[in-house]
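Q: Could you fold this chain for me?
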Amino acid sequence: MLHLEKKLFFIYNPHAGKENIRGKLYGIIQAMSDAGYAITIYPTRAPQDAIEQVRDLPDDYDLVVCSGGDGTLDEVMTGMMQRKHKIPVGYIPAGSCNDFARSLQIPNNMDQAAEIAVRGVNYSIDVGSLNDRNFIYVAAFGIFTDVSYTTKQEMKNVLGHMAYVLEGMKQLMNVKSYKLKVTSEEATFEGDFLFGMITNSKSVGGFKSIIGKNVIFDDGVFEMTFIMRPKNPMELQEILAALLIEQIDTKYMYSFRSSRVVIESEESVPWTLDGEFGGEHTHVEITNNQRAVEIRMPEEVRDTLVAEEEEGY
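A: Sure. Below is the predicted structure, expressed as structure tokens.
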């Protein structure tokens, strides 16, 4: 009789995306079993459920595998951050966006992703803290924060970065801006801002090349972008032109890397964390927790990331 020594906790959101996981469960569980794991299976029942389940998991588990959208991954990683003993995490994307999986080159094919989850290699990634909340790849506010989720995928596929900008332009007539003071070791500035984004990803909302180049997932810093509110049509035109060619116009935008930033405002600012509502705040302290959690990825992707880091990519 085969003795299974390794223990795996499989937690999934049965409602993620188009509920495709329902027809894939057998293959996923078979892949886990074939890799020599004894499996505990848990479907989430409510928002925040995954946080509690992972936080309270016994230490004798060797691997946690989650399946769902970016929100499910966010909850699992948040629960892991609340543990003293961290357990590696495998991810089987099943949502509609799957930004972080795209950045790590984890395929949308759930059978292939399951194989990576149980047979891939561990890679330590940075995890963000926004006050008492955690996020994996993006904390954002302002005009573009819901563009990612209102733009049709067909439009993203055809127009790419342009689609993001065009969709955001539709909102400019009713745009809300926020008067902020932003403080970090690298930069301090004040102004009236349409948008802010703190990221650790090569893709946000299904769009690439809107973050900046040379993103490294374990370097201890985030890529930060803030866009000021234009005072007249000429300034608006300059901002849009800069966005279209993916360049930072320093007259109206601030872009820098930092491990910590404090953002203060007179009125409450609604934040989005990994595509989910992150609360409204007048004082936000965002901190990078370097290499806080291990995630499974394809070995060749890990090797490429390590090589890029060593070369100072």
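A (continued): The first helix runs from residue 25 to 34.
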